[in-house]
Design brief:
Layout lengths: L2 H17 L19 E5 L2 E6 L4 E8 L5 E3 L8 H5 L16 E3 L2 E4 L2 E4 L15 E3 L12 E5 L3 E8 L10 E9 L3 E10 L4 E2 L6 E3 L15 E4 L5 E5 L5 E7 L13 E2 L21 E5 L16 E5 L4 E7 L3 E5 L8 E2 L33 E2 L5 E6 L13 H4 E2 L6 E11 L1
Antiparallel strand pairs: 1-2, 2-3, 3-4, 5-8, 6-7, 9-10, 10-11, 11-12, 12-27, 13-26, 14-25, 15-18, 15-20, 16-17, 19-22, 20-21, 21-27, 22-25, 23-24
The chain binds 2-acetamido-2-deoxy-beta-D-glucopyranose (5 copies).
Pfam family, one: Aldose_epim
Protein name: Galactose mutarotase-like domain-containing protein
Organism: Parachaetomium inaequale
């Protein structure tokens, strides 16, 4: 990609956003990828790897309450496996240029209707699908990003999304920076519409299992405790998860109530309301909760997390802080035991990835039990910070200022901070 053009066009806008994440002392070691094609970064008690494909997180390793390193995100052992995977579950990547679903693969900006590529819910009449999921057939998480910078504790990727790609108007240039610190993993995503007004909404589509898929009592996330303190409301959706425009109340004690108190994900499955909760014939969660905060709030303030997930088995807890105003949680009802775990994951398996760059080296793993080498139904949870889904088709929600960007205006910015504790 024409990176010099990217840098000259975008340098002014993004330099301030990027500079805060780069250590001024340099510290750039540019070691490049390991033998599996992964770029590792290191913080205090935490290590993570990323790949250019989709600017995806591939490993996230920290020690559980017994001091055992756990890799708590889904992924493949090799970077080259991601593009080869036909099922493509948007694994740890950045969905773009517009995350989640767009109704009828259509939107309008200033009176002009745009039709983008459909890629979900095919019918005889619409063989490509009835809607667009995660930016279309060749959305950002199907593409190789450029590595702009790689230091010991951060990595920055960039992508140039051309005018007309997947039917979207105008060129978009984006930088994705990941940083790890003292038991933290942060992401900053900046995108600039350089030529035309266009919708932009990004996210991180990470699949979590806080037990590193190694819990010998249960392979599901039903015993993970989830909390959405600001989410008394959610977006109403139809049978194929397209927003209807209505906003629903999450009545206290109902399946979608995670605001009144932290609750185990499995608890909702005891209520018949859980059937059809994630679309037609779908049991579980794949919902977009609104994040309702006071107008003046500091999203970084201690305790002001938008979501929290924990598992008593590993003792690992993640509090998610973000500047975004909605939160999607998916309970992995689509997994069916076909997706393989990484070498260091699973019952009886672990590796010292905090100090080793050779993840997947069979000599660093041990096997006590040969089974449980795949992700079962409800074996993971996806948590996505984003804006109100399909807000581009719902001007009545008042989200256009946060979802439509053009030359001369502010850049799109998403910030998220994952803060871990173990106990
Ligand atoms: C990278 O960061 C880790 C964690 O802060 C530190 O232990 C290690 O010494 C650093 N390595 C280099 C080459 O700076
Ligand atoms: C399981 O899911 C994978 C990926 O979506 C799919 O290719 C496969 O056909 C499914 N298997 C069964 C038995 O449903
Ligand atoms: C749905 O999309 C089709 C094809 O792109 C278009 O012709 C039609 O006008 C759209 N319908 C609505 C209600 O936007
Ligand atoms: C684990 O989850 C199951 C299913 O929701 C529940 O019945 C059980 O009580 C939970 N166990 C613990 C220890 O919380
Ligand atoms: C609904 O789901 C059940 C269980 O997975 C399946 O047997 C049934 O065929 C599905 N019904 C329809 C209409 O898809």
């Amino acid at each position: 990609m024409h990176l010099s053009h990217v840098l000259s066009a975008a340098a002014c806008l993004v330099s301030s956003a990027l500079s805060t994440t780069h250590p001024s002392s340099g510290g750039s070691n540019h070691e490049g990828p390991d033998l599996n094609g992964k770029y590792w970064i290191y913080g205090e008690g935490i290590a993570a790897s990323f790949i250019p494909y989709g600017a995806s997180i591939s490993n996230l390793v920290l020690k559980d309450k017994n001091g055992v390193p756990r890799d708590i995100v889904m992924g493949f052992d090799k970077a080259s496996d991601y593009a080869a995977d036909k099922a493509h579950p948007h694994l740890g990547g950045v969905p773009g240029r517009y995350a989640n679903r767009i109704k009828n693969s259509t939107f309008e900006i200033e009176g002009v209707a745009y039709h983008i590529t459909a890629n979900e819910n095919p019918t005889a009449e619409h063989p490509d699908g009835l809607d667009t999921l995660h930016g279309g057939k060749d959305g950002w998480d199907w593409r190789d990003f450029d590595v702009v910078s790689h230091t010991n504790n951060s990595i920055t990727f960039s992508i140039v999304d051309p005018d007309g790609k997947e039917g979207f108007p105008g060129e978009v240039i984006s930088y994705i920076t990941y940083t790890v610190g003292d038991m933290t993993w942060d992401a900053k995503m900046v995108a600039i519409a350089t030529t035309k007004k266009t919708p932009i909404m990004l996210s991180s589509h990470t699949y979590w299992n806080l037990d590193g898929f190694a819990n010998d009592k249960t392979s599901t996330v039903f015993n993970h405790t989830f909390h959405l303190p600001y989410s008394g409301q959610r977006v109403a959706v139809d049978n194929i998860l397209i927003p209807t425009g209505d906003i629903l109340a999450n009545a206290k004690g109902s399946v979608n109530d995670f605001w009144s108190a932290p609750k185990q994900i499995g608890q909702g499955f005891e209520d018949p309301e859980i059937h059809g909760n994630c679309g037609f014939n779908c049991t579980g969660y794949d919902n977009c909760w609104l994040v309702n905060r006071p107008a003046a709030h500091d999203w970084r303030a201690d305790g002001a997390f938008v979501a929290s997930l924990s598992s008593a088995w590993s003792g690992i807890k993640v509090d998610i802080y973000s500047d975004q105003d909605a939160f999607q949680m998916y309970s992995c009802g689509g997994q069916n035991g076909s997706f393989p775990l990484k070498a260091g994951q699973g019952v009886g398996r672990h590796h010292d990835a905090v100090s080793s760059r050779n993840v997947g080296d069979p000599q660093t793993t041990t096997t006590k039990k040969g089974s449980d080498r795949t992700v079962p139904k409800y074996g993971c949870v996806v948590m996505e910070v984003q804006d109100w889904i399909d807000g581009v088709n719902h001007p009545e929600w008042g989200r256009l200022g946060k979802q439509v960007f053009g030359p001369g205006g502010d850049p799109y910015v998403l910030q998220v901070s994952h803060r871990f504790t173990v106990g």
